[in-house]
Amino acid sequence: MSLVLGLLSHTLSRVLRYSGLSRGCHAPSRGAMEHDKAMEVYDIIRTIRDPEKPNTLEELEVVTESCVKVNEISEEEYLVVIRFTPTVPHCSLATLIGLCLRIKLQRCLPFRHKLEIYISEGTHSTEEDINKQINDKERVAAAMENPNLREIVEQCVMEPD
């Protein structure tokens, strides 16, 4: 119950801050709106489960609030850039983590977006190859056609009870 109240309080303070109501201001600035969208993205990805550990990506610090950037492309579309950090430089599941991030955001983001997902620079031994794979729509589609891989992704992106 205290967790729910804490989340509710955190969400309400964020809404008040970015609406300008807490300062007696009017509409939020573009930067505040982009920050709000980034927090919305983070709230979606933080609960993704690690493929081999019983923890979330947030708990393992694979994703943090600072790894999400959102920039307005047009009035109704945003560029979402995520730079995640694998737990070890030779992580064999980094591609799968990137796939989970992409699938969950494609399903859950409530606004129009372009999505770019990268491994944080210098944090993985094959980051360039993995970055190409997780940002290639055809490779992502092919991966999700594999029933075994799809099942793992579904387990990782499933919302906790």
From TrEMBL:
Transmembrane segments: none annotated. InterPro entries: FSCA_dom_sf (IPR034904), MIP18 (IPR039796). Keywords: Chromosome partition. GO terms for cellular component: cytosol; cytosolic [4Fe-4S] assembly targeting complex; nucleoplasm. One of its GO terms (biological process) is chromosome segregation. The keyword Lipid biosynthesis does not apply. PANTHER family: CYTOSOLIC IRON-SULFUR ASSEMBLY COMPONENT 2A (PTHR12377:SF2), CYTOSOLIC IRON-SULFUR ASSEMBLY COMPONENT 2B-RELATED (PTHR12377). Belongs to the MIP18 family. This is Cytosolic iron-sulfur assembly component 2A. It comes from Coturnix japonica (Japanese quail). The lineage of its organism: Eukaryota, Metazoa, Chordata, Craniata, Vertebrata. The gene is CIAO2A.
